[in-house]
Write a structure and sequence with these properties.
single chain, alpha+beta, four-stranded antiparallel β-sheet
Length: about 425
């Protein structure tokens, strides 16, 4: 039986009904479904082994992005976020993109870069030449640290070196390129870099200080593209508005920061849900946006000859299916099962598609009715809860505020008082 991520009226269902549909889609066990539904599904003893000084846990709402068709495959997207409208926007954009054939994605080999900083050199150029000459010995030393990674086709594959001028004088930065396979790779790369450091000191006569990976993973990029028919978007005026917004973001760092944040709203929600390092992803993405000397957008939107909208996104995506919280956190493991990805490359490409969808949703709203209309109507529920509304009155109060276009704490309290008096 073919499974589809298009679920009509998903947002109208109760959480229990939604979970039943996700359970069937992802073949979750009864135990896994129950675990997701728990208010706190992370046992304190597991949390205590994940980080230091544990006193408790901090739950985030976990939702599901629907309608995603990526390279001809349907996906349900687990997303953990506190921000209203993110999941609804991504799902709506994915539905529009689906009308144009869905997302098409690609990605690089999962290579991470380890950096070894060499200082106090008499002749930096000569030291660089010596390092490159000793490449085979350095790669051998690196690969001795992780025979399992080598067994699966990964490991240190190449070495390069750059001379940089700093306030502390010239430095030689030796870069180790490591194929991390289905791991994010931080631990493997750092271990290899540390193992190579003494040998590099012998070769160069310099002193090594830092030996650590960079989160600017320029050899591990993920890309997604899509085409949306102009009729699906609402006409040529909307298409034109989105292309103007894209040009604005490409040229102006102030706009680009918010433009990119919109894409990351979706990406980080998925990364968080799956136990990956969202800080590394965000740092790498922003650094990549500024790699040519000016901060710019990492997505682009243009109009094709037919008048339809075409979008693309490219950014570093260092994520893994193994290691860290991915295999430790109970909910992260279940979220990975819902995604049903087989490789880190497939996962990276899904994240690029989610980012492109999130970006489209924001630009479409900005180019038409404005961002606040949809966002604030969903945010109204948060306002109602903050005002002290019981569960059974939250939707009523939110609907009233939205209809009146008065979404604020004072109005929520007034409506709550009114409804309470009537009761």
């Amino acid at each position: 039986m073919t499974k589809s991520s298009v679920i009509s009226g998903f947002y109208k269902l109760s959480p229990k009904e939604r979970l039943t549909l996700v359970k069937n889609f992802a073949d979750l066990s009864d135990e896994e479904a129950c675990l997701i539904a728990q208010t706190c599904a992370l046992p304190l003893d597991i949390a205590d082994h994940m980080i230091e000084n544990v006193v408790g846990t901090f739950p985030e709402p976990l939702g599901i992005g629907t309608n995603f068709l990526i390279n001809g495959i349907d996906y349900l997207i687990p997303m953990a976020t506190e921000e209203p409208s993110v999941i609804a926007a991504a799902s709506y954009a994915a539905k529009m993109i689906r009308e144009g054939g869905g997302f098409h994605t690609s990605s690089d080999t999962p290579v991470m870069i380890g950096q070894i900083q060499v200082v106090k050199l008499k002749n930096a150029q000569e030291a660089k030449n010596k390092v490159l000459t000793a490449k085979d010995a350095l790669l051998k030393r690196a690969n001795e640290q992780d025979p399992i990674l080598n067994k699966y086709g990964g490991g240190a594959k190449d070495i390069d070196a750059r001379i940089i001028n700093t306030t502390m004088g010239d430095m030689l930065i030796v870069e180790l390129y490591v194929d991390c396979r289905d791991a994010m790779g931080a631990n493997a790369v750092n271990t290899m870099a540390e193992a190579c450091a003494p040998l590099i000191e012998q070769i160069t006569g310099g002193q090594v200080y830092l030996r650590i990976l960079t989160n600017l993973a320029t050899k591990r990029l993920a890309r997604a593209t899509c085409t949306i028919p102009k009729e699906t978007l609402g006409g040529e005026t909307i298409v034109e508005g989105i292309t103007y917004a894209s040009a604005f973001a490409a040229a102006d760092p102030y706009r680009a920061a918010t433009h990119n944040k919109g894409a990351l709203n979706g990406i980080i929600a998925v990364v968080l849900a799956t136990g990956n390092d969202h800080r590394a992803i965000e740092a790498g993405a922003h650094a990549y946006a500024a790699i040519n000397g000016q901060y710019t957008s990492f997505s682009k939107w243009t109009k094709n000859t037919n008048g339809d909208l075409e979008g693309s996104i490219e950014l570093p995506m260092a994520v893994g299916l193994i290691g860290g919280a991915v295999r430790t956190h109970p909910i992260a493991k279940i979220c990975m099962k819902i995604l049903n990805v087989k490789t880190s490359n497939e996962f990276a490409e899904i994240l690029a598609a989610v980012g492109l969808a999130q970006n489209l949703a924001a630009l479409r709203a900005l180019s038409s009715e404005g961002i606040q209309r949809g966002h604030m109507s969903l945010h109204a529920r948060n306002i109602a809860v903050a005002a002290g509304a019981p569960t059974e009155l939250v939707e009523t109060i939110a609907e009233r505020m939205t209809k009146e276009k008065a979404i604020n704490a004072n109005r929520a309290k007034d409506i709550l008082d009114e409804l309470t008096r009537k009761a």
